[in-house]
């Protein structure tokens, strides 16, 4: 059997995408190229929106950590942080840097992967029509491959690589990143319910995408990148992490209680929303009413109803309401109440658009949100 050490040099420097990347590469548009007329009334996508989608995926490519593949599109990026994980004798290289700094953070990364996979399952034809699906595949696998490495055993999840304070004191490029990049974990005795459940949600949502598990009432169809063995591999991580989140011998707690350094950057305000979201994506992935029952239990136990705040890496509740509505509208698992979830989604979005919520918008965002509200809620009806 080949050992990991033999495989690694072969893998380093090669692209992860299974969908062949375009040649020539897609690159962000030159800003001074200006607006391009929209081909209204044709089957072509609006190039402005296609470019936005392309820019979004290119942004993640600019954030890559580790040994970059020969297909790297970002000319000013280099290999970096190539010994991450060596302090714990693991390979934790790769993944994405958090922001303008060079820490790698599991909790917000999980939110990113979950959101992109969910969107690409429900509205994936947009990626296909924009010719961005190969980059979507590449972007997701770059993150998921790292998240798999960060989950080396059922009850172990690395939640951060790099020390927040040391890293934030450095403002340079990727060639002089301060060394000594410690790896921080949660495990059975020192758990982190939100981080484990958040990663479970990401793996399950991405498994749905890679296996093309659509609801009977799917909006547009998934982006075309299916791979059933990869989907099962992702689902296995999801189920193990969910089990870890729920049954860790150390009980349930916010992950920063056991990995304080992670709390400096991304402290979680509670794990009820991550548990609910993970259970819902697993119910979708496995068609199992027991996960769906769990989701109902968490939702009421952690009093998620009536939430008015933002939807972000910490707070998944607005998305949870939409997921409940999607599952109910597709038939549910018996005994559910679709209109209850529809009202909850509308209440939340109305609070943003018409006031009364904790979030508010600039005018442009307001128009976009109103458009999304109109299309999304009417599709849910
Ligand atoms: C499916 O994904 C697996 C795991 O990443 C990969 O090894 C395999 O080559 C992929 N299959 C195809 C047909 O691309
Ligand atoms: C962007 O496009 C303008 C106009 O076509 C051109 O003058 C300029 O050199 C381009 N810049 C880059 C960086 O390609
Ligand atoms: C960084 O990458 C660029 C482009 O690949 C290369 O030209 C440059 O030599 C690299 N810089 C260093 C310090 O390795
Ligand atoms: C479990 O996690 C805690 C907190 O990160 C850490 O201090 C401890 O060393 C870990 N246990 C093992 C066996 O690695
Ligand atoms: C890890 O979880 C799987 C179920 O996903 C289980 O079959 C296996 O026994 C677990 N391994 C250990 C060491 O607990
Ligand atoms: C889920 O399982 C039920 C039977 O328990 C079946 O009727 C339904 O078609 C399944 N749905 C999916 C999406 O597989
Ligand atoms: C419900 O919440 C309480 C604390 O508020 C907690 O002790 C209990 O374990 C929770 N039950 C479930 C199923 O999450
Ligand atoms: C379903 O939810 C709606 C809206 O919250 C509520 O008015 C209705 O009474 C509920 N129906 C049942 C059967 O609980």
UniProtKB/TrEMBL annotation:
<feature type="signal peptide">
    <location>
        <begin position="1"/>
        <end position="17"/>
    </location>
</feature>
<keyword id="KW-0326">Glycosidase</keyword>
<dbReference type="InterPro" id="IPR001701">
    <property type="entry name" value="Glyco_hydro_9"/>
</dbReference>
<keyword id="KW-0136">Cellulose degradation</keyword>
<keyword id="KW-0624">Polysaccharide degradation</keyword>
<dbReference type="InterPro" id="IPR008928">
    <property type="entry name" value="6-hairpin_glycosidase_sf"/>
</dbReference>
<dbReference type="Pfam" id="PF00759">
    <property type="entry name" value="Glyco_hydro_9"/>
</dbReference>
<dbReference type="InterPro" id="IPR012341">
    <property type="entry name" value="6hp_glycosidase-like_sf"/>
</dbReference>
<comment type="similarity">
    <text>Belongs to the glycosyl hydrolase 9 (cellulase E) family.</text>
</comment>
<keyword id="KW-0119">Carbohydrate metabolism</keyword>
<dbReference type="GO" id="GO:0008810">
    <property type="term" value="F:cellulase activity"/>
</dbReference>
<protein>
    <recommendedName>
        <fullName>cellulase</fullName>
        <ecNumber>3.2.1.4</ecNumber>
    </recommendedName>
</protein>
<dbReference type="GO" id="GO:0030245">
    <property type="term" value="P:cellulose catabolic process"/>
</dbReference>
<feature type="domain" description="Glycoside hydrolase family 9">
    <location>
        <begin position="50"/>
        <end position="357"/>
    </location>
</feature>
<keyword id="KW-0378">Hydrolase</keyword>
<keyword id="KW-0732">Signal</keyword>
